[in-house]
Amino acid sequence: MIAAFLLSQALSPALPVLEPDTICRGDTACLSREAGAHARLAESWAGQPAAARAHCTAKIMAGDIDQYAGLEACLIIYRVMGEQGAAETTQARITLTPAIAERN
């Protein structure tokens, strides 16, 4: 059942829905980064390889990616490194700390 859902998400031209407000907690730099990443992904999602979309969607479902910037990074890593990139992103959680948290 989960595999069927992931396959449908990977083949879908619809970009997964994430909640940047929850992650950014009002930090304007974080929200701006997320808006930019979302805009770029909205334009390129359908053109991404199905394997990359499936891999990165699975990372979202696993809770390893919770930001559009992280999703964008996952796709870039997969595109550049192929299956080796999939192994690399499978082993690590992609986290982009909001700028406000970095200052504290």
Short précis:
This protein has six helices and no strands. By secondary structure, the protein is mostly helical.
Could you walk me through the main structural features you see in this protein, from its secondary elements to its overall organization?
The protein has 104 residues and is mostly helical. It has one domain (2-11, 27-99). It contains six helices and no strands. The protein is globular.
Mean pLDDT: 79
Number of strands: 0
H/E series: HHHHHH
* Molecular shape: globular
Distance between the termini: 43 Å
Structural class label: mainly alpha
Helical run tally: 6
Task: Give the strand content.
Answer: under 5%
Radius of gyration from CA coordinates: 14 Å
Instruction: Determine the fraction of residues in helical runs and give it as a percent range.
Output: over 70%
Question: Low-confidence segments, ≥5 residues, pLDDT <50?
Answer: none
For the sheet with most strands, the description reads:
none
Taken together, the total number of domains comes to 1
